[in-house]
Amino acid sequence: MILGVIVVLLVVGVAIFLQSPSFGRRPSGERLKAIEQSKNYKDGQFQNLSYTPDLKEGVSYYTVFKDFFFSKSKRSKPKNVMPSQKTDLLHLDPSENVIVWFGHSSYFMQADGKTILMDPVFSGAASPISITTKAFAGSDVYTVDDLPEIDLLFISHDHWDHLDYETVLKLKGKVKKIITGLGTAEHFERWDYDTAIIEERDWNDTIDLGNGFVVNTTPARHFSGRGLKRNTALWMSFVLKTPTLNLYLGGDSGYDSHYKAIGDKFGPFDLAILECGQYNEYWKYIHMMPEEVVKAAAELKAKKLMPVHWAKFSLALHDWDEPILRLTAAAKKQNIPLVTPMIGQKASLTKNEVFTEWWLGLE
Question: Which residues pair with residue 153 across a beta bridge?
Answer without folding.
Answer: 117, 178
